[in-house]
């Protein structure tokens, strides 16, 4: 992110958004992989085990996520993920840590035409779908989306290959694409 790393040119939209947002320069990750991210973000479970918490012997322990507490305050909680339902165990983890509506690839209406050929739905159409879905939520709501393009093999849609040149790392081109997809999401969501 250029806003946090002077000289980065891969995230112009996020950089512009950061100027209008609360940002935290002292932020630390308690997960090192995608599979560890959902327990870390939703339930403050750090990555201390040899296997991700979702695959550990502790996965069925009583644990409450932020959605558990927000639902008690009347929030409509939802999670959207462009990959196959069951992928990385997100749906099961979220279900056992509190009430939440889970929407994955099974529920996505254009799963064939918008599929990236690897993980699931391209970020741009999935974020457009997410914006439409947010418009249907009754407030107050707490909703999260997990996109896929930042995962190996870092593919982007063919129509954008000339637009996003990337950089020294293979992930840079997909970061540029995701930054663009986020800009389109915000353009739609603000309406």
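^ Assign residues to that structure.
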């Amino acid at each position: 992110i250029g806003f946090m790393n002077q000289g980065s040119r891969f995230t112009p939209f996020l950089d512009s958004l950061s100027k209008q947002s609360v940002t935290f320069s002292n932020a630390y990750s308690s997960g090192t992989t995608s599979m560890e991210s959902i327990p870390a973000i939703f339930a403050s479970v750090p990555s201390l085990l040899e296997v991700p918490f979702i695959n550990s012997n502790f996965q069925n322990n009583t644990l409450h996520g932020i959605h558990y507490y927000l639902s008690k305050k009347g929030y409509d909680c939802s999670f959207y993920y462009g990959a196959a339902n069951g992928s990385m165990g997100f749906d099961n983890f979220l279900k056992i840590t509190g009430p939440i509506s889970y929407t994955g690839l099974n529920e996505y209406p254009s799963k064939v035409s918008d599929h990236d050929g690897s993980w699931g739905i391209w970020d741009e159409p999935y974020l457009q779908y997410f914006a439409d879905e947010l418009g249907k939520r009754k407030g107050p709501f707490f909703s999260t989306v997990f996109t896929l393009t930042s995962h190996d093999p870092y593919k982007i849609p063919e129509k954008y290959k000339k637009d996003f040149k990337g950089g020294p790392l293979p992930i840079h081109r997909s970061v540029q694409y995701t930054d663009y997809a986020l800009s389109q999401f915000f353009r739609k969501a603000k309406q």
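DSSP finds six helices and three strands in the chain.
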